[in-house]
Amino acid sequence: MKTLAALALLATIPTTAHAQRCAPNNAGLTLPRGFCATLFADSLSGARHMAVAPNGDVFVAALGGRGAGGGIFALRDTNHDGVADVRVRIADFSSSEVRLFDGYLYAENGTGVVRWRLPAGQLRPTGPMDTIVKNLPPGGNHFLKTFVIDRNGVLYVNVGTATNACQPKDRQPGVPGADPCVERETRGGIWKFDARKLDQTQAMGEHYAVGIRNSVGMDVSPMDNTLWVMQHGRDQLNLWPEYNDRASAESPAEELIHVKEGGDYGWPYCYFDVPKAKLLLAPEYGGHDDRQGRCADVLGPVATFPAHWAPNGLLFYRGGNFPARYRDGVFIAFHGSWNRAPEPQAGYRVVFQPLRNNRAAGPREDFVTGLFANGKPTALGGRPTGLAEGPNGGLYVADDLHGRIWRVEYAGR
């Protein structure tokens, strides 16, 4: 028994050889003390979310761009030097999401969720592609169908909104929002399906939660198997005379949400005001100043983050490579803003948000930076999008601007 315990302890301690796989300059990233990074893959156009197999193979959903097509890709590091040297294209449709579950590789295809049988240790799936969910609402402002699968095979799918704030004429100054917002019946929320069942439609699923504008980053807590998402806050409060450009740049918050079955999180009627630190009535529905109205009755976030940072990745860390404190919280990948003028554009980083008992346990902590500074991209540049954990406890970070994937590991003090 003592020998087994000693081996288990050694398995959690990074070795010198393990640490030496990291690049001398951490591949350009700025990381907390004790962490190091290597550039695992490059030039994978539009790389978004990832899933890592038990043998270390990395599966990537890519949107494409800059003349390159998207698809589902498999990456393998055959010589164990920390850099992928094999790349296989599994599918040629643009995608933003992949997951591994129950011997299958799952992906989104814009209007639903598909899967392939993936034998253990193989890069290429076998057999035909199955359709799990089909005919979800296409197009609109938020057309990607990100999803997550819990350990029981429950499939949660994000169906983002077609509009910014449910205006009949989208993003137009002074146009009131539709009331009621019929769009909430088919978009702006989470739908629940069975990951093992074929040919499901939206009507066959459960409308699990409403009023979530767009939740690209999703994960399930390893502690209690419950759903968590990051909501993209709305844009362009400055379409209304009650709000100036600076107010629109500072609000609304990006929100970390612990999703409750049947919960209503307020979109489009409500937004979370950053300076006032509470949910307020949106201007399209008569809101200004401190008016809460119907927003006093909707569910609030667990934690909030600066406006327009664009959270695209969410991950509960489960491994043993990082210090234990990182298992008490979530990592969030912020893609970065486009509409914070006159304030500097911001985001472009990965942060760690400590949690305790499903509540925020302190402020966010920068974890991966070095891509943006003083409102402008650095020489390295990049927009973090996807997060995944490897079998050795390393954290993979995808950048969809340059198509890079980094792996971050803990090398010790």
According to CATH, what is the topology?
A: Neuraminidase
Helix fraction bin: under 10%
Radius of gyration: 21 Å
**Biggest sheet architecture:** 5 strands, antiparallel
Q: What percentage of the residues does DSSP assign to strands (E)?
A: 35-45%
CATH architecture tag: 6 Propeller
- Overall shape: it is globular
Please provide a written account of the structure:
With 413 residues, this protein is mainly beta. 5% of the residues lie in helices and 35% in strands. The chain is built from three helices and 29 strands. It has helices at residues 2-11, 16-20, 245-250, and strands spanning 35-41, 47-52, 58-62, 71-76, 86-91, 98-101, 104-108, 113-117, 126-133, 147-149, 154-159, 189-194, 206-210, 217-220, 227-231, 254-258, 270-273, 278-281, 303-305, 311-316, 329-334, 349-356, 359-360, 365-368, 372-373, 376-377, 384-389, 395-399, 404-410. It is globular. The chain starts with a helix and ends with a strand. Mean pLDDT is 93; it is low at 1-20.
Keyword list:
413 residues, mainly beta, Neuraminidase, five-stranded antiparallel sheet, four-stranded antiparallel sheet, 35% strand, disordered N terminus
What topology emerges from the helices and strands here?
Layout: H1 2-11, H2 16-20, E1 35-41, E2 47-52, E3 58-62, E4 71-76, E5 86-91, E6 98-101, E7 104-108, E8 113-117, E9 126-133, E10 147-149, E11 154-159, E12 189-194, E13 206-210, E14 217-220, E15 227-231, H3 245-250, E16 254-258, E17 270-273, E18 278-281, E19 303-305, E20 311-316, E21 329-334, E22 349-356, E23 359-360, E24 365-368, E25 372-373, E26 376-377, E27 384-389, E28 395-399, E29 404-410
Antiparallel strand pairs: 1-29, 2-3, 3-4, 4-5, 6-7, 7-8, 8-9, 10-11, 11-12, 12-13, 14-15, 15-16, 16-19, 17-18, 20-21, 21-22, 22-23, 22-24, 25-26, 27-28, 28-29
